[in-house]
Amino acid sequence: MNRLSRWYVNFQRPYRRTPRGIDTFDLLLDLVVTPDLSSYTWKDEDEYLHGRRLGVVTDAEHRRVQQARDEALAMVEERRGPFAAPWPDWRTDPSWPAPVLPDDALAAWPM
């Protein structure tokens, strides 16, 4: 049986639907939390700061990231949201079929 090895919080811009699919944009910062929620580390803070220096992460986005960081830590400390029971023990139903991609899923998009 698989066990939870860590919680991983990715900071990114909201998903955006486009004619070709869904665009995402990673904001270069991640929160890694131990399975028992007893400790956490920030991952890639140096990359995030470099992105700030380059203007990839705007001042407005930075303020939203700071707020999201505070909210994520509060959820960990208060064991709410995704960190609340029953999520740590949740497993997929073994009777669920594996997802199947459509035949043309790997076809190149016309440019």
What does this structure look like?
The chain has 111 residues and is α+β, with helices and mostly antiparallel strands. It has one domain: Beta Barrel (FomD barrel-like fold), CATH 2.40.380.10. It contains two helices and five strands, in the order E-E-E-E-E-H-H. The strands form two sheets. Strands 1-4-5 form a three-stranded antiparallel beta sheet. Strands 2-3 form a two-stranded antiparallel sheet. Strand 2 (16-18) and strand 3 (21-23) form a beta hairpin. The longest helix has 20 residues, at 59-78. The chain is flat and about 45 Å long. The chain starts with 6 loop residues before the first strand and ends in a 33-residue tail after the last helix. The model has no long low-confidence stretch (mean pLDDT 89).
The strand order across the widest sheet is 1-4-5
Any idea what the radius of gyration is? 18 Å
Percent of residues in β-strands: 15-25%
Which consecutive residue ranges, at least 5 long each, have pLDDT under 50? none
Oligomer: single chain
Proper CATH architecture: Beta Barrel
Count helical runs: 2
Number of domains: 1
Number of separate strands = 5
Structural class by helix and strand composition: alpha+beta
- Helix percent reads 25-40%
Largest sheet: 3 strands, antiparallel
Overall outline: flat
| CATH level 1 name | Mainly Beta
- One letter per element, helices H and strands E, the order comes to EEEEEHH
- Cα(first) to Cα(last) distance is 44 Å
